[in-house]
Amino acid sequence: MKLFIKALSPKIGREIPAPDYATIGAAAMDLRACLDGPVTLAAGARTLVPTGLAIALPDAGHVALVFARSGLGIKKGVCLSNGVGVIDSDYRGEIGVGLVNLSDEDYTILPGDRIAQLMVIPVVQPTLEFVDTLDETERGIGGFGSTGR
């Protein structure tokens, strides 16, 4: 499949590298901060970081998901503010990345920094059918932690 990408900033491909896969086996491509200058994310604060990009998915059978970069989360405590970003197939606006600084130290985002990952995957939109009962399983209605540690 092809993913059509529109550069919304003249910096893309010049000052800010275009999205790319870091390795041949990478499942997601890196998204970078499209900023005019450094932005400091205070400890405990949230911000929306522009990427300077918009995309067009081929159809409703695909979704783009924005994930945190594991190194940024583990090493710096900077993660996505909404857990996972969902880019629907009919959205054509700029991809923005909501970040939250969970650490106790300020973190500075520089122009071009890799701030998130973008993955495109297939979507299934099931038909809903309300029923009176559901089939039984071994787990049943056991909730959080019911399968052990």
Q: Which terms would index this structure?
A:
149 residues, mainly beta, 3-stranded antiparallel β-sheet, 1 helix
| Largest sheet: number of strands, sense, barrel closure | 4 strands, antiparallel
Head-to-tail CA distance between termini: 40 Å
Give a count of the beta strands, DSSP E runs of length 2 or more.
11
Roughly how many Å is the radius of gyration?
Answer: 19 Å
Assembly form of the protein = single chain
- Residues in helix, %: under 10%
Mean pLDDT, all residues: 95
- Uncertain stretches of 5 or more adjacent residues: none
Sheet-strand content, in percent, reads 25-35%
Number of helices: 1
- Describe the strand arrangement of the main beta sheet, using strand numbers: 2-11-6-8
Structural class: mainly beta
What shape does the CA trace take?
globular
In sequence order, what are the helices and strands, one letter per element? Answer: EEEEEEHEEEEE
Write the layout of secondary structure elements.
Elements: E1 4-7, E2 29-32, E3 39-41, E4 46-50, E5 53-56, E6 62-67, H1 70-76, E7 78-80, E8 85-87, E9 96-101, E10 107-109, E11 114-122
Antiparallel strand pairs: 1-5, 2-11, 3-10, 4-9, 6-8, 6-11, 7-9
Describe the structure.
The mean pLDDT is 95. The chain has one helix at 70-76; strands spanning 4-7, 29-32, 39-41, 46-50, 53-56, 62-67, 78-80, 85-87, 96-101, 107-109, 114-122. The strands form four sheets. Strands 2-11-6-8 form a four-stranded antiparallel β-sheet, with no helix packed on it. It has a three-stranded antiparallel β-sheet with strand order 4-9-7. A two-stranded antiparallel sheet has the order 1-5. The protein contains one helix and eleven strands. The protein is mainly beta and 149 residues long.
